[in-house]
Amino acid sequence: MLRHALTKIRRAPNSTLVAAIASLSTSGAPLSPINFGSNQDIPGFVTGVVGAPAVIVIQEWWGVTDQIKRTAAKLALEGEYRVLVPDIYKGAV
Predict the structure, then answer these.
(1) Tens digits of per-residue pLDDT, 60-69?
(2) pTM of the prediction?
């Protein structure tokens, strides 16, 4: 479903881009909090099947928002990916 929607988005004129994005499902896979890095000092979230192809979702400048988490969950569920969302600002904005 996600691949089909992304194809529609790539082909859509700017005026229909918002409608194409809104058509995506709002459900997703659950995210689990993790810490990683050489000192385990980088917080983040992970979701999806272990061993699946991986995707890293990078936050916008205001941090790991609910929208970023929903996007990661949808990618994991609909695209069958393992998704990592690092909190590069470590909770600070």
Answers:
(1) 998 999 999 9
(2) 0.67
